[in-house]
């Protein structure tokens, strides 16, 4: 059994586009996805901006099916079906995938929050007889993964890593393990999140975690900038089709890149604050490079976690340097949350798509709003779209989450089928 | 007071909304599960939508016996008239 795992499909529905191609085109251009929240409930909140998915997923799903799904699941299903079709699969019985060799791993940070709170509102206002019988299957955190698994008839297991803002990356790391262990040939993996609701906006606000740049939404998410004041809540989903190289070659699939390795650590420091020394982050990057069989000098690109919070961004720059050493000088960094906002449990998956396409298309999407960088960052950050060199390329996608979760993924352009 | 036809028409709308069944297929002799393929959770939604629409109470021990559209229409007719 080959231990090489390749990407044969990808999909995304995000604040920059309703599919991966539109999202990618916009992220390369540098497109702010953050806007004012035009809801009455936002009026008296300290943060009145967010990055909403531009295409309502419910408009793309059968009406009766859609009403049995939370928004987070709808987003996840749309991204998964896009990835599935791009991989050359359909929804009929004739798929060249044995269902007993097909698994799903789709993470989420929070789960079906709109359903949970909406049904509690219904119960208080109208009584328990009006609570939807679909409440539990809609709100449970594994609903996006389970819905995708049912749709694709996956029989090799359905998984839902929940590790806050690292969930998407952890789901992809788990898929890598599943294929390497020989438990599946194909894993549909990613993340989904849809929690733009007054409670999370208020609650993240109480943590002083959100930007309050309400008068300039498009300039609010500004990783590494001296004037950053918090992250911007986003929503969306992204999904990869991961496949053993043998299986992909056997069916003549188009290969978009290789998921070469993963590194997972935990800070053992604090529930919400990153370890200021970044030891766990650094070790995750080191482990991902080693797991991929790469050297630090092979890494040409890092899609940073870079959320635009005062505490996190600088630590990450230092922790990557601690992991890669002088090879950091040859890395082009980007913080795409400057455009997309922070998709929480979907962030790692969306940024995995960005990392994959950056290597395949040899272009790093820009970090927007970086007007006055922190002093002494010591990293090369793309503020316009930047070309990557010819030849073999490897990149790292970092995701870190409340709880002290650190997950670094290493992608390469090995095995890519020319488009 | 609602007539059988009015209740049937309203049930057709509810079943369509919840389960996507065409209104014209919702007939008195149709079984919710066997003919219309309504799953058990959707059936609960249909019952509570009917309760809300007609201002009646259909207790769980009664709703179990409503196998066909006609059973439901007859129950609602008795409860409202």
From TrEMBL, chain A:
<comment type="function">
    <text>Involved in the type II fatty acid elongation cycle. Catalyzes the elongation of a wide range of acyl-ACP by the addition of two carbons from malonyl-ACP to an acyl acceptor. Can efficiently catalyze the conversion of palmitoleoyl-ACP (cis-hexadec-9-enoyl-ACP) to cis-vaccenoyl-ACP (cis-octadec-11-enoyl-ACP), an essential step in the thermal regulation of fatty acid composition.</text>
</comment>
<dbReference type="Pfam" id="PF02801">
    <property type="entry name" value="Ketoacyl-synt_C"/>
</dbReference>
<comment type="similarity">
    <text>Belongs to the thiolase-like superfamily. Beta-ketoacyl-ACP synthases family.</text>
</comment>
<dbReference type="InterPro" id="IPR014031">
    <property type="entry name" value="Ketoacyl_synth_C"/>
</dbReference>
<dbReference type="InterPro" id="IPR020841">
    <property type="entry name" value="PKS_Beta-ketoAc_synthase_dom"/>
</dbReference>
<keyword id="KW-0275">Fatty acid biosynthesis</keyword>
<protein>
    <recommendedName>
        <fullName>3-oxoacyl-[acyl-carrier-protein] synthase 2</fullName>
        <ecNumber>2.3.1.179</ecNumber>
    </recommendedName>
</protein>
<dbReference type="InterPro" id="IPR000794">
    <property type="entry name" value="Beta-ketoacyl_synthase"/>
</dbReference>
<feature type="domain" description="Ketosynthase family 3 (KS3)">
    <location>
        <begin position="2"/>
        <end position="413"/>
    </location>
</feature>
<feature type="active site" description="For beta-ketoacyl synthase activity">
    <location>
        <position position="165"/>
    </location>
</feature>
<keyword id="KW-0012">Acyltransferase</keyword>
<dbReference type="InterPro" id="IPR017568">
    <property type="entry name" value="3-oxoacyl-ACP_synth-2"/>
</dbReference>
<keyword id="KW-0808">Transferase</keyword>
<dbReference type="InterPro" id="IPR014030">
    <property type="entry name" value="Ketoacyl_synth_N"/>
</dbReference>
<comment type="pathway">
    <text>Lipid metabolism; fatty acid biosynthesis.</text>
</comment>
<keyword id="KW-0276">Fatty acid metabolism</keyword>
<dbReference type="GO" id="GO:0006633">
    <property type="term" value="P:fatty acid biosynthetic process"/>
</dbReference>
<keyword id="KW-0443">Lipid metabolism</keyword>
<dbReference type="InterPro" id="IPR016039">
    <property type="entry name" value="Thiolase-like"/>
</dbReference>
<dbReference type="GO" id="GO:0005829">
    <property type="term" value="C:cytosol"/>
</dbReference>
<dbReference type="Pfam" id="PF00109">
    <property type="entry name" value="ketoacyl-synt"/>
</dbReference>
<keyword id="KW-0444">Lipid biosynthesis</keyword>
From TrEMBL, chain B:
<keyword id="KW-0963">Cytoplasm</keyword>
<dbReference type="GO" id="GO:0005829">
    <property type="term" value="C:cytosol"/>
</dbReference>
<keyword id="KW-0275">Fatty acid biosynthesis</keyword>
<comment type="pathway">
    <text>Lipid metabolism; fatty acid biosynthesis.</text>
</comment>
<dbReference type="GO" id="GO:0016020">
    <property type="term" value="C:membrane"/>
</dbReference>
<feature type="modified residue" description="O-(pantetheine 4'-phosphoryl)serine">
    <location>
        <position position="40"/>
    </location>
</feature>
<dbReference type="InterPro" id="IPR003231">
    <property type="entry name" value="ACP"/>
</dbReference>
<keyword id="KW-0443">Lipid metabolism</keyword>
<keyword id="KW-0596">Phosphopantetheine</keyword>
<feature type="domain" description="Carrier">
    <location>
        <begin position="2"/>
        <end position="80"/>
    </location>
</feature>
<dbReference type="GO" id="GO:0000036">
    <property type="term" value="F:acyl carrier activity"/>
</dbReference>
<keyword id="KW-0444">Lipid biosynthesis</keyword>
<dbReference type="GO" id="GO:0000035">
    <property type="term" value="F:acyl binding"/>
</dbReference>
<comment type="similarity">
    <text>Belongs to the acyl carrier protein (ACP) family.</text>
</comment>
<protein>
    <recommendedName>
        <fullName>Acyl carrier protein</fullName>
    </recommendedName>
</protein>
<dbReference type="Pfam" id="PF00550">
    <property type="entry name" value="PP-binding"/>
</dbReference>
<dbReference type="GO" id="GO:0009245">
    <property type="term" value="P:lipid A biosynthetic process"/>
</dbReference>
<dbReference type="InterPro" id="IPR009081">
    <property type="entry name" value="PP-bd_ACP"/>
</dbReference>
<comment type="function">
    <text>Carrier of the growing fatty acid chain in fatty acid biosynthesis.</text>
</comment>
<dbReference type="InterPro" id="IPR036736">
    <property type="entry name" value="ACP-like_sf"/>
</dbReference>
<keyword id="KW-0597">Phosphoprotein</keyword>
<keyword id="KW-0276">Fatty acid metabolism</keyword>
